[in-house]
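Sample 3 of the quickstart, ligand adenosine-5'-triphosphate:
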Amino acid sequence: MTSAVPLHLNEVSKSFGPVQALKPMTLTVDGGEMLALLGPSGCGKTTTLRIIAGFEEPDTGSVVIGSRDVTDLPPNKRGLGMVFQNYSLFPHMSVGENVAFGLKMRGVAIAERTRQARAMLSLVRLQGFEDRHAHQLSGGQQQRVALARSLVTNPSILLLDEPLGALDKNLRERMQFELREIQNRLSLTCIIVTHDQEEALTMSNRVAVMSDGEIVQVGTPTEIYERPRTRFVSEFLGTANIFAGTVVGPDGDEAWNVDLDGKPGTRAGARSEAPIRPGHRVLLAVRPEQLQIGPVASGMITANVKDLVFRGSYFAYELTTEGRDAPIFAYSQRRQEIPADGIVGLRWRPDGAVVLQDAPPS
Ligand SMILES: Nc1ncnc2c1ncn2[C@@H]1O[C@H](COP(=O)(O)OP(=O)(O)OP(=O)(O)O)[C@@H](O)[C@H]1O
Ligand SMILES: [Mg+2]
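Result:
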C-alpha cells in the first residue's frame, strides 16, 4: 500500500447558477488523517467531495493530492476511492464483479482481478460472498461491498459521503469501528461526510463544521465540542445553553468573571480565547453536563425543574428561569434531590462555560 498522502484544497469555490454552493475554501487533510465534514443539509458537503473526486469542476482554486495538482485530472487519474450514501452497487453484477469493477476498467486480467477482489472482500469480512448479488445482501453487507469496491484500486485518499446513513444504530456503530480500523491499517487519508454529530466526534481525528458553503471551525473533536467558537457550532454539536452577560474582570489565564443578564448577583466563570475586556457584552455557551444542580444559594441561578428524563447513562433535567424563554438543560450522572417546590440552584465551574465569538447582544 502507498504511504499516507495529504490533501489540500486551495481557495476552492463553486456556484450553480445563482447558488453559491461553496465560498472559497482552504483546507488541509494530513496524510492518514480522518477528517469529518459536518453540517446541515445543503451546506456544501457533497459538492466539496465531488470537487475533490473530480466529478465537479471548481470555479476557482485548486485541489492538490500529495504534491500533485490534480485540478485538471479526470476522476480515475486522481488515486482516490469514493463511497456514496446509497452504496450504488451495480445490480446486474455479482459481489465479486462489483468489487473487481475498477480493476476491469484498468484492463487488469481476470485472474488477477479475481484474486484482488477476494482479498478486498476478506478485508471487509465478506469472504465467500463473491457470487451473491447486491439484493441478496443486508444493508451493512452492501455497505462493505461498496467499501471493498472503492479500495480495490489501492487509493491513497478515501471519500465517504454519509456511508452509514442507511444503517440502524447498532450496525452503524459497529461499522464505524470497522471503517476506522481499515482506514488505519491502510494509512488512508479520509474525508467522511456526515450529519450525525456523534459519528463525527467518535470517528475522526478532526472535524470541520460547515455552514452555508464555508467551514466555520476546524479542530479535534474535543476542541470543537468544548471550545465552540460560535453559537452555531455549539448548538450543532449537541445541546448548548446560551447565556448573555457582561464581563466583570479576569479570573486567571483565559478565565473571566461574567455578570449574567437579568440575574443580579450571579457571577459566573467563562473561558475566552479571543481577547475581551471588562464591560464587554458577551454570549456564553454551557454544555448541559457542565451545569450543576443543587440547593439554592447566593451567586447561583435560581431555576424551576420542569421535566426529568432518564436517558440510560444519565438524567436530563429541563429547567426554566425567570426572564428567559429558552429552557435550560442540565445532565447529571445521578438523580438529584429536587425539593417539593421544584426550585433549585444552578451553577458551573469557572471553566464550564466558553465565551462565544458571535456578535454580543446589545
Ligand atoms: N448540480 C447542481 N445544480 C444546482 N444546484 C446544486 C447542484 N448540486 C448542488 N447544488 C446546490 O448546492 C448547495 C450545496 O449542495 P450539497 O449537495 O453540496 O449539500 P450537502 O451539504 O451535501 O447537503 P445534504 O446534507 O443534504 O446532502 C445546495 O444549495 C444545492 O441545492
Ligand atoms: Mg450531500
